[in-house]
Amino acid sequence: MSSVEIDRNSVPSLLDSFETSLKNDDSQSQKGAPVSSLIPNILVVDDDAVVRSQLVRLYTHSGYTVVPVSSAEEALQRLEEGNIDFVITDIKLPGMDGVELIARMQENYPDVPVIAITGYSNIETAINVLKHGACDFVVKPFDLGSVQESTRAALEKTRVYMEIRHLRRYLKDGYEFGGMLSKTAEMHRLFEIIRMVAPTEMTVLIEGETGTGKELVASAVHYYSNRSKRPFITINCAGFPETLLESELFGYEKGAFTGADHPKAGKIELAHTGTLFLDEIESMSVVMQGKLLRVLEDQKVHRLGGSRGIQVDMRVIAATNVPLKEMVAEGKMRSDFYYRINVIPIQLIPLRQRKVDIPLLVQDFLHRHPVAASKGISSVSKQVMRSLIDY
Questions:
Q1: Measured between alpha carbons, how far is 113 from 160 in angstroms, rounded to an integer?
Q2: Using one digit for the tens of pLDDT, what is the confidence trace for 321-352?
Q3: DSSP code per residue over 88-133
Q4: More confident: 126 or 210
Q5: Which of 29-33, 159-163, 302-306, 331-335 is predicted most confidently?
Q6: Integer Cα distance of 178 and 19 in angstroms
Q7: What is the mean pLDDT of residues 8-31?
Q8: Left if phi > 0, otherwise alpha if psi is -120 to 50, otherwise beta: which for 179?
Q9: Tens digit of each residue's pLDDT (9 = 90 or more) over 218-244
Q10: Per the omega criterion (within 30 degrees of 0), is the bond before 141 cis?
């Protein structure tokens, strides 16, 4: 697994189930407009000025941003900028023709859908471009309504990729996401993964050294999920002895043990309809893992001293600072529990591997810290910054 990655084996099923809630953030809102407000960028490729004009009017009227060009060569230049979400191109073009353009797109931009325009005499060629990767073709003189519907269908099928492109464009000059700051490509990939997995109900396992921001990632997954307005309950599994951890997680009824003077809901119950974040899950005993596994499978929790099961609906995010796979090999973690929580693995990189972010973090710290504000401290010397980076 690379420094920040999602399990590649789970990608196909994820893409089928992603109903993402990617937002179009702006400076006035942490949580911006919904995905449906993202405006696709349409590239129209045709050397016929009349046809180009028709298509520009059609797409502009549909609320899209339109980039018209007259050659395949110029189209490839536009695609290289990474801002195009959809292409419609004539097959007959001066210089490089539309068939070669589509073949180049399939090789270099396979996630950008393309529709071919052809004449009646070129139906065989149009069928050929479908084999090269085009998602559809239209025949001149075309029906604008059919073009519009074909475009909508193509964009809908590739919506996840369009959302990722828009997020990348947003992050290109930015550096903040969900309370995390970074200018590095690795962290920006992490931001993309969070936006992709957050709206699913899948369990997330965050692995990383102490201080890499696992709780920030967990809260970002919750914040961008469909459960964002529901409880986000956290518990550090290393912070309690096993007997106390059990009562903290499962809760207890009155009289369950000495000192249980009144019933108390556990963290699992409190996370109902929301998210339960289990930090330092590696410290949980094998016995406790078995008890929690049963809750995760049955979606029911039994309080200590209680006889009835309480239905719970929660999303689980776990975090660890040690490789859990090694714990499974050593017999310190149940394999069934490991695979139950390791549905979507995310691995974080330590700050020493992204030193370029240190000045960014220092400035943010000075901007937010009340002592720095009261003393008017807005920066540190180059020598201090160098010492921090070298540390």
A1: 12
A2: 999 999 999 999 999 999 999 999 999 999 99
A3: EEES--SSS-HHHHHHHHHHH-TTS-EEEEE-GGGHHHHHHHHHTT
A4: 210
A5: 331-335
A6: 20
A7: 33
A8: left
A9: 999 999 999 999 999 999 999 998 889
A10: yes
Q: Which bin fits 82, alpha (ψ -120 to 50), beta or left (φ > 0)?
A: left
Q: Provide the mean pLDDT of the chain.
A: 84
Distance separating alpha carbons of residues 14 and 160, to the nearest angstrom: 10
User: At which residue do the structure tokens 């030193």 appear?
Assistant: 355
Q: Where are the beta strands (DSSP E) in 251-314?
A: 251-252, 264-265, 275-279, 300-301, 310-311
CA nearest neighbour of 43 among 80, 86, 76: 86
Helices (H) and strands (E) in the chain, counts: 17, 18
User: Is the confidence at residue 34, as pLDDT, over 70?
Assistant: no
Tally of CB atoms within 10 A around 251: 23
- Count how many residues are written for the chain: 391
Q: Which residues contact 53 (CB under 8 A, 6 or more apart)?
A: none
Q: Count the Cβ atoms, other than its own, within 10 Å of residue 107.
A: 10
> Which two three-digit tokens encode residue 364?
């943010």
Per-residue model confidence (pLDDT) at position 380:
84
Q: What is the DSSP string of 127-160?
A: HHHHHTT-SEEEESSPPHHHHHHHHHHHHHHTHH
User: Phi and psi at residue 181, in whole multiples of 5°?
Assistant: -120, 130
Cβ–Cβ under 8 Å, residues 2 and 345: no
Residues 86 and 112: beta-carbon distance below 8 Å:
yes
Is 273:315 a contact under the CB 8 Å cutoff? Answer: no
Question: Bridge-partner residues for 311, per DSSP?
Answer: 300
- Both tokens of 179, joined, read 């309370």
